[in-house]
Amino acid sequence: MAQYYPGTSQVAQNRRNFQDPDYKLEKLREISDEDVVKILGHRAPGEEYKSVHPPLDEMDEPDDIVRELVTPIDGAKAGDRIRYIQFTDSMYFAPAHPFLRSRSYLNRFRGVDAGTLSGRQIIEARERDLEKISKELLETEFFDTARSGIRGKTVHGHSLRLDEDGMMFDMLRRQILNKNTGKVESVKDQIGRELDEPVVLGEPLDEETLKAKTTIYRIDGEAYRDDKDAVEVLHKIHVGRSNGGFCPE
Amino acid sequence: MDIEVFPHRVLGADTTEKLLNGIECIGDVKRTVVQGPRLPPEDPNENPRYAERRKITVNGQEIELKVKTGRIFVEVSNESTIDEIRGICNEHLPFGFDINIGKYIKTQKTVSDKIKYGDTDIPDELVGMTDPSARLKDRLTIIKKGKKD
After folding, report:
1. Contact between B7 and A171 using a beta-carbon 8 Å cutoff
2. Is the ipTM value over 0.90, yes or no?
3. Neighbours of B7 (CB within 10 A)
4. Which domain holds residue A170?
5. Which candidate, B130, B75, B133, places its Cα nearest to that of B104?
6. Is residue A4 part of a domain?
7. C-alpha torsion sign, points B68, B69, B70, B74
8. DSSP code of B116?
9. How many structural domains does chain A have?
10. Which chain A residues contact residue B52 at CB under 8 A?
11. Which CATH number is A132's domain given?
């Protein structure tokens, strides 16, 4: 059995769940395919996919054993462009965080490229595959409407205090809490272009649920040092790396 | 003596307006600095429903709020004023806050100020009221005491 993450705490268990491709993530909300396309902002809903090369079937490719072994993903088969979706996760108990996202993406999805930075995380894939992946990421536990943000640019805000209404700071104000309905609405696409109609993302999770679902160790939640097993494995890796790096001959 | 009001959440325009009106009513308060992440400049193409930047009214004086309030520095002379401010904060900040005592507003001209203003004498009260990179008239509002709407 694959060992994804050490530790006995709930945070460690959540990290294992995200990274295990056999674990079925809980679906928290419903977002239509059209709404996902609108939020991504790469093409208008209903518009044809643009392509960068002819479909693979029509291309005269040289014989290669690897080409026969690897089944191409749908987007590659059709010759789609590579597009992206990028998330920012608040340090205040967001369900996922950048490093975990990368590890989970590479375990769960084929034909993707994941890029990790301290406050944001990008995934690149062929356009039609990306739309499927985005839908999954937005509908499941990976995403919370208040503590996670879909931000193609101007990502600043993950380490800031939350807004009064519990939303993560966003200079471009893409996701807004509708006070009348109590639901979060996406009023702009991921790079801040205004949408004709807001996309309703749903209610934010309450503090208790977030603390149960989070994958972030925090002193006011579950502290890392209290998770003895995880710390022990970290120490082993640290000592192993230090000894291995010293006079390796 | 300066104090720093540090709310546990970043404040919107409405709460900032209420809080500042409360603080500015206190006679002992000399100077107040609102600090936080800047909001984007006004964009004529943007839907006004989604714009956060707006004018607030403090003691009858209109101020354009250019930041989302993260911290408020207040200069006071009596320690008893801190309790008054704490009372106002309790009323408007239900999610919690800290009040720290220290020196938060600079009182002496620095090299940057010297380069910016030259040898001209600027009043002591204006020193430290804005960043070296910004113009005073863009950032500073003088509120007359005793006038309340």
Report:
1. no
2. no
3. 23
4. 10-57+64-236
5. B75
6. no
7. positive
8. H
9. 1
10. 173
11. 3.90.320.20
Q: Does any domain span residue A3?
A: no
Q: What are the φ/ψ torsions at residue B70 (nearest 5 degrees)?
A: -105, -40
d(CA B134, CA B130): 6
Cβ neighbours, 10 Å, residue B64? 13
At residue B39, the pLDDT reads 82
A197/B contact by beta carbon, under 8 A: no
Q: What is the mean pLDDT of chain A?
A: 92
Task: Answer whether residue B89 shows pLDDT above 60.
Answer: yes
pLDDT of residue B134: 76
Instruction: State the pLDDT at residue A249.
Output: 63
In a mutational test of the A interface, the residue from B6, B45, B68 whose CB has the highest number of chain A CBs within 10 Å is B68
Tell me: the pLDDT tens digits for A17-69? 999 999 999 999 999 999 999 999 999 999 999 999 999 989 888 899 998 89
CB neighbours (10 Å) of residue A217? 19
Q: What is the pTM of this model?
A: 0.85
Flag the least confident range among A58-67, A113-122, B39-48.
B39-48
> Which of B5, B8, B9 has the highest number of chain A CBs within 10 A, making it the mutation to test binding with A?
B9
For residue B87, give every residue at least 6 positions away whose Cβ sits within 8 Å of its Cβ, in sequence order, or none: none
Tokens of A119: 């406050």
Buried b / exposed e over A179-212, threshold 16 CB at 10 Å, is: eeeebbbbbbbbbbeebeebbbbbbbbeeeebbe
Please give the domain boundaries of chain B with CATH numbers for all domains: 2-103 (3.30.70), 106-144 (no CATH)
Tell whether A247 is covered by a domain. no
Q: Does residue A85 form part of some domain?
A: yes
> Chain B residue with minimal CA distance to A165?
B9
Please identify among residues 13-42 of chain B the ones whose CB lies closer than 8 Å to any CB of chain A.
15, 37-40
Question: Would you give the distance in Å from CA B121 to the centre of its chain?
Answer: 24
